[in-house]
Design a protein that fits this description.
- The protein has one domain.
- It is built from one helix and eight strands; from the N terminus they run E-E-E-E-E-E-E-E-H.
- By secondary structure, the chain is mainly beta.
- It has one helix spanning 122-132; strands at 6-7, 10-12, 24-33, 42-52, 57-70, 77-92, 111-113, 118-120.
- The structure holds zinc ion.
- Zinc ion binds next to loops.
Length: 146
């Protein structure tokens, strides 16, 4: 693993895109993300691995974060730890070589490498965190309620 230091949640892949297909690069992530749309931001940290494919970059991440939730029993706000294990494919918004626009990708779940050749993990992290939030969050398993 190549240590590249703690990075923001936006990764510039302009150099990585020049590497051969199959190249991998590891990053450490440490940044705050506004996950719950309630104004509070959550610290997100962990590892991501980028893999260069023929026409995209696969991002695999193992990240940890804590979101503020309201306990379903006692209604107290507490910090709920979440583990995010994600894998997403990032397609270039433009063809990397020619600079032409690549064919339209209609599927809304797809993420893109933007025109500045930056991968922004924020939205993927937000989506994975939101589906990891428990339906009935409890501040502790033996919360006695109100
Ligand atoms: Zn509680």
């Amino acid at each position: 693993m190549v240590w590249v230091g703690w990075i923001m949640i936006q990764i510039n892949v302009s150099q990585f895109l020049k590497e051969p297909i199959g190249s991998e690069r590891d990053y450490q992530v440490s940044d705050s993300v506004n996950i719950m749309d309630n104004g509070s931001s959550s610290m997100v940290y962990g590892n991501v691995k980028l893999t260069r494919t023929n026409g995209s970059i696969i991002v695999r991440g193992k990240l940890n974060t804590t979101v503020e939730l309201v306990c379903a029993r006692c209604l107290d706000v507490f910090g709920c730890p979440l583990k995010l294990d994600f894998e997403e494919e990032y397609l270039p918004a433009r063809d990397i070589v020619s600079g032409d626009f690549s064919p339209a990708y209609d599927e809304p779940s797809l993420f893109t490498i933007d025109d500045n050749q930056v991968i922004d993990l924020t939205e993927a992290i937000r989506q994975y965190a939101l589906i990891s939030v428990p339906m009935k969050p409890l501040c502790s398993q033996d919360c006695s309620g109100l």
